Amino acid sequence: MGFRPVSSTFTSAPPLLPPRKLAGGKEFDGSYLHAAVARESDSRYKYDDNLTKATSRRDGSRSILGHFICKACNPSRSWYSGNICTELFIASNDRYRTILHAQQCRRCETYIMPEVDEGNYVQKIVSALDLWINRPERKEFPSDYRKTKPHDKERCHGCQIGVCIRQRK
Ligand SMILES: [Zn+2]
Ligand SMILES: [Zn+2]
Prior knowledge:
Layout: H1 8-11, E1 27-29, H2 34-40, E2 46-47, E3 58-70, E4 77-91, E5 95-101, E6 103-104, E7 111-112, E8 115-116, H3 118-134, H4 157-160, H5 165-168
Parallel strand pairs: 2-5
Antiparallel strand pairs: 1-5, 3-4, 3-8, 4-5, 6-7
The protein binds zinc ion (ZN) (2 copies).
One zinc ion (ZN) is lined by residues 70, 72-73, 77, 105, 107-108, 110.
Domain 3CxxC-type: 63-162
Protein name: 3CxxC-type domain-containing protein
Pfam family, one: Zn_ribbon_3CxxC
């Protein structure tokens, strides 16, 4: 997966606030999905993996479609989710960042990294960026809602730390 080399983070000026330390195995930086976002948006937006709620102009959460595979279970267990909690941060100069949240396996309670539906992710993130950055006065279209099982709030890491959109409803 296309993580940037570590050296690049040391050449830029140090941020005023410490970057958010991601909870290992429970939160995942969305930088590896940026290539798809860049393709869809003609590279209008830049990924900034130092953005936090404190340093962003606007932030919010989105529910993304996708699935999870628990390989700790034998046989492995998989499930679909229409509510993969994804935080979105937007800052000046067309910069953004996303953080994807794990869900726990119902059988063994291991936190599993989401495998997001790339098309759904790109559609939702780019439309939010377009509206928030270029046309902030407009309302975002309600996203297509696909009926899936009720959101398992107890096993969603985003719900556990209070950032999941499904928890607030
Ligand atoms: Zn499991
Ligand atoms: Zn949730």
